[in-house]
Fold this protein.
Amino acid sequence: MLYQLEGSQAIAKAVVLCRPGVVCAYPITPQTHIVEGIGELIRSGDLSEGEFINVESEMAALSVAIGSQATGVRSYTATSSQGLLYMMEAVYNASGMELPIVMTLGNRTIGAPINIWNDHSDAMAARDAGWIMLFAETNQEALDLHIQAFKIAEKMLCPTMICVDGFILTHAYERVDIPFQEEVDEFLPPYVPNIYMDERNPIAVGAMVSPEYFMEVRYLAHRKQTDALEIISLVSDEFKRQFSRDSGGLLRKYHTDNAKTVVIAMGSVSGTIKDVVDELNASGEMFGVVSLVSYRPFPSAALRMVLKNVAKVIVVEKAFALGIGGFLSQEVELALKDIDVRVISVVAGIGGRSITRNLLKECFLKRTHEQITFLGLKEDIAAEKYTSLKLHYLGGMI
Amino acid sequence: MFQVRIHGRGGQGVVTAAETLSIAAFLENKHAQAFPSFGSERMGAPVLAFCRISDKEIRLREPILEPDALIVQDPTAIDLPRVFIDVVPGGFVLINSPVPLVYQQQNITMKCIDATRIAIEQIGRPIPNAVLLGGFSALTGVVKIDSVIEAIKTKFFGTIAEKNICAAKVAYEKIIEES
């Protein structure tokens, strides 16, 4: 049924429709409305078999989810930014213990300086933690991805993170189609764990592994990531068959067939990029767009297929490695290393900086590009401050 | 696409106004997207909220830079002549003001309404958002007053909803009378 809802409320409803047995989270902007929404739905009886556990920190939130999931209960949590960093030890543990927890990450940058606004720095901090990481482009997709996430996670025995742009999606009201409980139940049957902690049949979880076997454990985790590519596609196909909606999958193509230049992005900015590309193509340009849904596992082969005849790839990315450049563009470049194509990195939206059509258009039409473009950088202020910064540390050395 | 930007202060229901407007448009089977200016929702601080209304799916996520309509819930929160420049030709400006404000701005339809007074009389609190949505419906015709009323019912409940609906109707009728 169609509703006009805040993204966070849509996600809250999706999570409750998936009937988690345990939800535990600690509030942090911009994730707060999601867990408040779930809390209210549980209190009003929408989740009769579920329990909301209040905890004192993010570290506790994911640790409780690990505990409940290990006893065979479908478990969910959500966080953002510094909250993810605070639980990071548990983030690695969840994947290492093969616990199919689902977590929403309301993407927000990382301080200091403190900033509550959106970029993908938080997600990038967890990019090698062994989780499946899927990025939503719209609130509809955010909702759909949560329903798919439990299925993917439980099939793969791999925790799954749904990345949703903080404020831009979490706080945006837009039209969402919320499925009925029976439909979700049909798509996502009750969680039946193969192995779980049970006092009548004791097992140990997370036991120490010595150098004789640790590398094999990591190798298997590596293979699991690449195998997840297929499952993510299959679950998306199954979702489409049942709900008649294209959501999820590895990546989505937009006018890529005859494109000379393809723009790649993750999350909500893909929408703005598609509007820009439509405008440019109407004046005779040949641009296409790839919205990357699955960042982990990284769909290298699928990208190669789409981009094999393209002359230029522009990666619009909301996080970068200081002194090196964008994470996403490095990985795109690696995926395309056997193909003769130029990969250009455009770092955009850092700490909530607006990504406007005009800035994107100007950038896309450039004939020559810097190694990294910082979209909308206030060059005068940056240059002035850089001069004084340099004087400061060079002065210190003398 | 019709783009609305709402200016005011934290505590005046600026974000709620944008959300309610998006619900009103949704009830008319239109696509609508409402979002706040992200994170500055503190009491008294200048706050911005946006609403896009369209017959097609809205993919654009940039802030609204060239609004078709401005709703100014608190004219002291912004530099009015400067934000006027952003409004597209043929656009609308609705200002909450006890006295008529005069600006030389060609090709823009401007109206002032004492929304705070109407809110105090009808709701008992100086929160002008619903009042201005009623006025917006009359001024622009982008959404029907009935849709605004239905939208208010989804955001407020009981007597608060009733009072806000009355307040919105008062503003609607006042603007209709004046035009």
